[in-house]
């Protein structure tokens, strides 16, 4: 079993269209696949059991808040989004090198998409994204991934949770990352009013 992403180089003459790539992912549902803006395809290893449990706790907390708030929709790690760069990232497991585990989009932005767009890899970047670092993940590519998301239209807040060192890196568009050392909770700020992430369920 491989423990790091497998990157597949595709010759220019064999590049898939968006529809072909979507179909490719559908017939390989057991794999976590992502394509970056250069056409490289990354196949991610399965999530370890403990990390999967932490992902579940993370998604559960956001789900409960979103159900009460009602202003947006949540997505899990298997969701694919097409970024403005042309990269297609399956949030929570695939990406050019890494991907968010949880995301949230304002309802008006989501509803502005056509039903066809919603049913495929939606051409939108979430307003809020979270990436959870497993103990075997390299931190540098995860930070690069978060920086890429912060350059996308619509994104407002991102969290990179480093369980190994008990740190949370907070990303906001146009400003340097902020690092919290072993926080007990993390706020959703004005992007997700009233959302407080309980880190005891994540560490």
Summarize the topology.
Layout: E1 6-8, H1 18-26, E2 32-35, E3 41-44, H2 49-69, E4 72-75, E5 78-82, E6 88-92, E7 102-106, H3 107-111, H4 115-119, E8 128-133, H5 139-150, E9 157-162, E10 167-171, E11 178-181, E12 185-187, E13 196-198
Parallel strand pairs: 8-9
Antiparallel strand pairs: 1-3, 2-3, 4-7, 5-6, 7-8, 9-10, 10-11, 12-13
Tell how many strands the DSSP assignment holds: 13
Mind describing the biggest β-sheet? Answer: 6 strands, mixed
Class of secondary structure makeup = alpha+beta
Strand order of the largest sheet: 4-7-8-9-10-11
Count of alpha/pi helices:
5
Query: Any idea what the radius of gyration is?
Result: 16 Å
Approximately what portion of the residues adopt beta-strand conformation?
25-35%
Q: Any idea what the shape is?
A: globular
Low-confidence sequence ranges: 91-98
**How far is it from the N-terminal to the C-terminal residue, by CA?**
25 Å
Mean pLDDT: 86
Helix percent reads 25-40%
Helix/strand order, N-terminal first: EHEEHEEEEHHEHEEEEE
């Amino acid at each position: 079993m491989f423990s790091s992403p497998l990157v597949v180089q595709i010759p220019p003459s064999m590049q898939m269209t968006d529809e072909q790539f979507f179909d490719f992912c559908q017939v390989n549902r057991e794999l976590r696949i992502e394509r970056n803006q250069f056409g490289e395809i990354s196949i991610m290893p399965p999530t370890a059991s403990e990390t999967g449990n932490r992902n579940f706790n993370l998604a559960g907390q956001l789900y409960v808040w979103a159900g009460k708030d009602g202003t947006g929709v949540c997505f899990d790690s298997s969701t694919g989004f097409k970024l403005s760069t042309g990269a297609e990232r399956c949030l929570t497991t695939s990406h050019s090198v890494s991907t968010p585990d949880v995301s949230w989009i304002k309802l008006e932005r989501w509803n502005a998409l056509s039903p066809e767009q919603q049913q495929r890899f939606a051409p939108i970047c979430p307003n809020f994204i979270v990436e959870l670092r497993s103990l075997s993940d390299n931190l540098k590519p995860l930070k690069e991934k978060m920086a890429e998301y912060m350059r996308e239209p619509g994104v407002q807040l991102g969290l990179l949770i480093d369980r190994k060192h008990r740190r949370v890196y907070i990303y906001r568009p146009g400003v340097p990352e902020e690092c919290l050392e072993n926080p007990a909770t993390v706020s959703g700020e004005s992007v997700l009013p009233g959302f407080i992430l309980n880190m005891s369920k994540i560490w």
